[in-house]
Predict the 3D structure of the following.
Amino acid sequence: MPAFLDRLRARYAWFDHVMQAQTRYRESKGDFFAAGITYYTMFALFPMLMVAFAIAGFVLSRQPDLLEDIDNWVKQTISGDVGRQLLELIDAAIRSRTSVGIIGLAVALWAGLGWMANLREALSAMWDQREDDASFVRTKLSDLVALVSAFVAVVLTLALSALSSGGVMRKVLEWLSLEHAPGVSLALQVASVVASLFISWLLFTWMIARLPRESLSFRSSVRAGLLAAVGFEVFKQLGSFYLRSVMHGPAGSTFGPVIGLLVFAYITARLILFATAWAATSKENLVEAPVAPPGTAVIAPREVHTEGVGVRGALAAAAVGALGALGLSWLGRRR
């Protein structure tokens, strides 16, 4: 099997790139970081819900007509104890909107900083960036700036998604009196998917390039952002199919959204980290691995003691000399 993979890597450059990205992802503990990102994502949802309840409480407290309409709708739609408990929950949210909002904001800030720190460390690990010696306060301030930047980026992408959604496009077509033109429904679906893909591409490209501890250029992450956007769009379509299939029974309606949210957060985190590893292992982004300097050289002179030829050596030399003299005299007599 390894030999087969080696042949494929030697034959196809894209397959070799995928294997390099997988190796970088595995060696950098991508699954471990993805699990941490998922944990902080789920943990941050609860304070965000508290903030949402507080905002709703402030809005409803200043609009009694809207509150009355909501109460009438709940009474007409949901009967029994469930409707009564829902009305009590709305009243409680209005009464405790200030305290709920303050606590929710504090916890959301704490959870958000943890989420951002984990995400930035994961992206930095995929880029094989070395850890710096920044202080704790400086690191948290940097994470806070990155968190605010990510919040602004997400808000902008959501606003663009809302503007490019099928409902807005359909209203524009109705204003142009083209809602009944042939092929309009299919064109709207395709346009909505393309717009969502483009917006996700922008968001993922920004995350891959600018959220690591050492920011990189957008050029280094454009193709990786497109890869993440395509995978995210495919997974999003599969996730919507999953939710539609599990929401029928009571167990599915209770646990299905929670499990679906967990899986969605985990797969999305893995997708972003793998795309980052793919960008980091591109030819234009690969850098030579740093070579450690050699160790300290120790110069130690060697002392060699010579004891001379000795007695045996002297006797052997005398014997050789005598034999040589006899041989020379014998040769002289023969001449």
Notes: The chain has twelve helices and no strands.
